[in-house]
Structure formats: C-alpha cells, structure tokens
Design a protein that fits this description.
This protein has 326 residues and is of the alpha+beta class. It folds into two domains: 226 residues, P-loop containing nucleotide triphosphate hydrolases (Rossmann fold), CATH 3.40.50; 86 residues, OB fold (Dihydrolipoamide Acetyltransferase, E2P) (Beta Barrel). The chain has eight helices and 17 strands. Helix 3 crosses helix 4.
Length: 326
Amino acid sequence: MAMLEVNQVHFAYTEEKPTLEDIHFQVEKGEHIAVIGESGCGKSTLLHLIFGNLDLNQGEIFWRNKKVRGPAYNLIPGLDDVKLLTQEFDLMPFTSVEENVKKHLSRMYPEKNKSITDDLLKTLDLFNLATQKVKYLSGGQKQRVALAQALAKKPNLILLDEPFSHIDQYKKNQLRRDLFAYLKKEEITCLFATHDLKDMLSFSDKTLVLDQGKVIDFRAPEDLYQNPKSYKVASLFEEGNLISGSYLGGDSTMKYVVYPHEIELNSSAVKLLAEVKKTFFIADRYLIELQFQQQTIFAYHSKSLAVGEKMAVRFSIKKLEDRLLN
C-alpha cells in the first residue's frame, strides 16, 4: 500500500475555472516527488490539498491509509506527521535561529533537542548564525531557518513549495545536496514544487508534470527527458526542436523532438544549411538560434557565430523512436 494516495481529485477556487482536474498518483515511503509546470498550473494548490488546508470538490486523498480532510471537517487543518513549508515563513523574528528551530520540540529532552538542532543547523549551513535574531537575517537565511524548523520534529512527509526560491545561487547547489541527502537518510517522504530544473533532475525519484491543472506525465526524470511524450514536457528541459522525420531518416509525416545538444553545426558541409539569427552566451558554450527551412531551431556550439552566417546542420539522436511525439 502506498504511503500517499491521491485519487481523482478535483478542486476549484471559483466555479468558472477548475484549478485541478482528475489528479491521480501514488507515492511510496521515502520517495522524493518533484511537482513541476508553468506558473498557475496548480502546484501550490496540490500541496495545500494534501496537507488538508483546503476542501476537495471531488476525489479523495489518503495519507498512511487515513483520509485527509480539510477545514470543513477539522477545526485545525493539517496532519500531525506532515509538514508544509510555503514561501511565507512562520518564524519568531525577535528570537534566535536556534530557538526558532527548537520551537516545536518538547522541553523535556534538552540534550536530544540540542543534538537535533545542531545537526540541522550544520546541514542547512546555519551553525554560525545559531544565536542571531531572525529579524536580522536575509530572505534566504530565513528560508533555511524555516526548513530546519519544519524538520526538527521529524515528519514522515514534508511538502515544500519552491524551497530554494530565496536562496542565492552560490549557496543553493550545496544546500540542495545536503538537504535531499538528509531527507533520504531519515527516510522522509518529500513532495516539492519547483521551477528549477536542477531540483527536479538530480533530486527527484519521480516527477509529476502539471499543465493547466491536469497531470500530463508522471515518471522518473530521466525517462521524461529521454522519452518525452509531448512537446510541452520536452520544453521543460531545454529549447526543444520539433523536426520532421524527413530530416532524421524516419517517417516524414511525423514530428520528433531534438534537443540543442543533438544538433551539430559545421561550416564546411553544404547540406541542410541553416542561417544564424542570434547567439547567446551560456557559460561553457553558446546557444545558437537559426533559421532552418521554414522554422526556428536552437543548437549549441563551442563558439559564437556571426548573424547571417550559414551553417550545415546534422541531427544526431541515439534512439529515434524515443523522440516520436504522440
């Protein structure tokens, strides 16, 4: 039996437009599930429904075989062993970082509390700020304190809404590795809504893709990337190109997804020429926008190319059948 079951859930804030429709998936103990999609697709709403902050219009949610009910049934919404961390932090500004982390811990076990708190402060790179009052912290530091506070009284499930949105890029990479390693070590099940591709690719066991309130895919991130079932899913990863099978040795009536790194540009060849329209510097390489036949495509190249330059195009896909769109 799955730890979390979401069965045919429907929810709407207004009668005119549903926010979520027919949402159905299951999560096993200790799994990490990324929830991705465009802004307004229902990611945050889904987390609030699972926590019990909202009442379903239709469907059912079960956590550890117990039906999750919203505020219409519970005076105090929420589940005892589930934590929801939103982008609005419920912190005590005039007390220290350490005191905020200990907020929900019993005072009967001071030594144990100290051990738990120190472990989390180290994991989230807050140890040197332990005595600092929260009101003096930056937004990113407050977000890390909120994470530590949510984990102090160990939950079985944690729901994270854009957990790194306020954190500087140079801190984010190490923090992600440390946080998700901690969650795996403690066997804490995690659902996290994110816009960041790195969150999803490296740290989710499965990824739930929402589009206009509906689930359009739910698989391991590698499967989503290697074998996208729609252009919408492929475009979440990179500037996907829709290419006719006539250029790939496949069915000319079909369209295939080709990622920029699967397009080779060569100035010496003469077949399948494309014209450079724009060049974008992206650290270790350049993203090249080209006019190819009657469409715009994107490819990577090792150096900048001049606007108007003609380049030969070669497509190199390992498994053509994996890129055929439904």
